[in-house]
Amino acid sequence: MAAVLDTRLEARPNARRIAWVPLALTAVALAWLTLFLFVPLFAVFFEALRKGWGTYVAAIAEPDAWAAIRLTLLAAAIAVPVNLVFGIAAAWAIAKFDFRGKSVLVTLIDLPFSVSPVVSGLIFVLVFGAQGWFGAWLTDHDARVIFAVPGIVLASVFVTFPFVARELIPLMQAQGRDEEEAAVLLGANAWQLLWRVTLPNVKWGLLYGVILSNARAMGEFGAVSVVSGHIRGVTNTLPLHIEILYNEYQFAAAFACASLLALLALVTLALKTWVESRS
Amino acid sequence: MSIEVREVSKRFGTFAALDRVSLDIEAGELVALLGPSGSGKTTLLRVIAGLEAPDSGRILFHGEDSTDKRVQERAVGFVFQHYALFRHMTIFENVAFGLRVRPRSQRPSNAAIKRKVMELLELVQLAWLADRYPHQLSGGQRQRIALARALAIEPKVLLLDEPFGALDAKVRRELRRWLRRLHDEIHLTSVFVTHDQEEALEVADRVVVVNKGRIEQVGAPGEVYDHPATPFVYQFLGNVNLFQGRISRGIANVSGRRLAAPEHDDVDEAPATAYVRPHEIDVGVYQTGESVPATVDHAVALGSVVRLELSRHDTGEVVEVEMPRDRYEGLRIEHGDVVYLAPRRARFFLNSQPDHTATAS
């Protein structure tokens, strides 16, 4: 008993002496976060509402802005489901089967992460542009990909390609194949296997991948910028619209639109936290 | 339903997991596939289940070639080492799964499913856990649920892959007795894989000893234990000490003793190795003939038996000896004493014989 008391008495002053270290570290971290996160975030909303609520609403309701919002939602509405289906298929193949060229496929899935978005956009210009491989054919058939909505959708799909698959592959690999094998032995066909065993086991990871994929699809600038052509009210997504407004010194309108994207990011973060707490 | 395995081979890259394996399992039998890890026993089980396709050879169920039959159609009940319960389903739904995934025309009504599942949960004595999730159960409970789930589809054959491997020793002993009793009740043709010889000998009707992708010996537990066909089987089923000697016309000369080796009566003067179980060695305090001197390193009393560990003076090898406690006390030996060892009984294998000669009896 005496020994225990002794060590306690000894430990006390030590604990007091180093108490300022965690405090200082916390202060540094907070200062850093304030400077690089809270101040910019506050600035976006402050600038957006600086000229009053009326200006804010007008900036968003303006036809070009409204068209940009619709286009952004459309691109995300196509890119996310496409990548959802692709991501599940790719993750299933990679995690549950052995085949030749598996590592090549894994590398290919990561490609959109490692390539600069501008290059991603340029790839599509080179393939589908007027001077590109399929340019003449597309012109003959009166179809446009580049500087039109299909190009924007393609670019969005490309840059969000890895999110769902990347999220699912490690999860599925960690879960192994036992449950799938058990289900097959009990008579389940491939479809029942997918819906009743594989997907329920990865639903939170899947939702997480979708949320990230959606955030990226709505926020993408570089790749979309290259293929868009910046035609107002037609091929401008929300991030492109913000850039144009800013370059035209319409700061209040630019920040109003930017606040929408920032809000989206905040909602995404909240959703992500909720999903993580559930899984 | 009987199972026939005919000349099955399976390679993984350059590794031969199964090398022309043939095995007959009779209807209603409980068979253990026993072998060290990497011996191919699990691969054999998975080939029978249809989870792996053999490179060559056939699998017959009840005389009918099932090699190319789909896994879903084999009606095989399979129990995994790590249970493989569906983690997002309740225990009830786990057991009901095999019935719910049936095509609509063959699917029982909800009431019939409920009745069947509860019946199976009663059988494994865990009906009170129906609404729980797998992670809320202990290992032993999970394995019993896995068994109930496998039985739900009314399989013709039950295959168990190291079913008790992930459980602690006490639960393992309880569960294997329970499995034996269950088998005696339902008489389902069953094959289980294990690396634990005690488990195989205690539970199975017949034991199949597998090593390096081949079958070393097939036989009743007592037969395999008392008459091992190969040195591998001898060493794998329990502790063994090796003594060098010579054999001539059915008589072996080991450490100055002449022992019968009737299975080698056609051999004329050849070096042989004697395989001696710990309880088949005599320990004396005086040298007789050419008995081997050894030093007592360690003595442990385990109930009525004393287990000695000694090191041989000639080879330095460790020898294990077991003897009744009163005999040990009569010898009055202790740690560090020198004693003399001679085998009382042994099984002989000629030294020229490769150690994986496959003989199925």
Short description:
The complex is a heterodimer of chains A (279) and B (361). Chain A is an all-alpha fold and 279 residues long.
Unreliable residue stretches of chain B: 354-361
Backbone shape of chain B: elongated
Q: Write the H/E string of chain B, N to C.
A: EEEHEEEHHHEHEHEEHHEEEEEEEEHEE
DSSP helix fraction of chain B: 25-40%
Report on the biggest sheet of chain B. 6 strands, mixed
SS summary, helix count of chain A: 14
What value does the average pLDDT of chain A take? 85
Structural class by SSE content of chain A: mainly alpha
Distance between the termini of chain A: 45 Å
In terms of DSSP E residues, the strand content of chain B is: 25-35%
The N- and C-terminal alpha carbons of chain B lie at a distance of 22 Å
Ranges of chain A where pLDDT stays below 50 over 5 or more residues in a row are 1-7
The outline of chain A comes out as globular
Structural class of chain B: alpha+beta
* Strand order in the sheet with the most strands of chain B: 6-7-8-3-9-10
Q: Biggest interface, which chains?
A: A-B, 16 and 24 residues
Whole-angstrom Rg of chain A: 25 Å
Model description:
The complex is a heterodimer of chains A (279) and B (361). Chain A is mainly α and 279 residues long. Chain A is 82% helix and 0% strand. Chain A has 14 helices and no strands. Chain A has helices spanning 2-17, 20-49, 53-61, 63-96, 102-114, 117-128, 135-140, 149-160, 162-175, 178-185, 190-219, 222-228, 238-247, 251-278. The longest helix of chain A has 34 residues, at 63-96. Chain A is globular and about 65 Å long. Chain A starts with a helix and ends with a helix. By secondary structure, chain B is an alpha+beta fold. In chain B, 25% of the residues lie in helices and 34% in strands. Chain B is built from nine helices and 20 strands. Chain B has helices at 41-49, 91-100, 110-123, 139-152, 169-186, 197-203, 221-226, 231-236, 325-331; strands at 3-12, 15-25, 30-34, 56-61, 64-65, 76-79, 157-161, 189-194, 206-211, 214-219, 241-248, 251-254, 257-260, 270-276, 281-284, 292-302, 305-312, 318-324, 338-343, 347-350. In chain B, helix 2 (91-100) runs parallel beside helix 4 (139-152) and helix 3 (110-123) packs across helix 4. The radius of gyration of chain B is 25 Å and the shape is elongated. Residues 354-361 of chain B have low confidence and may be disordered. Chain A binds chain B through residues 178-179, 181-189, 192, 196-197, 200-201, and chain B through 49, 51, 71-72, 74, 76-78, 80, 82, 84-88, 97-98, 101-102, 146, 149-150, 152-153.
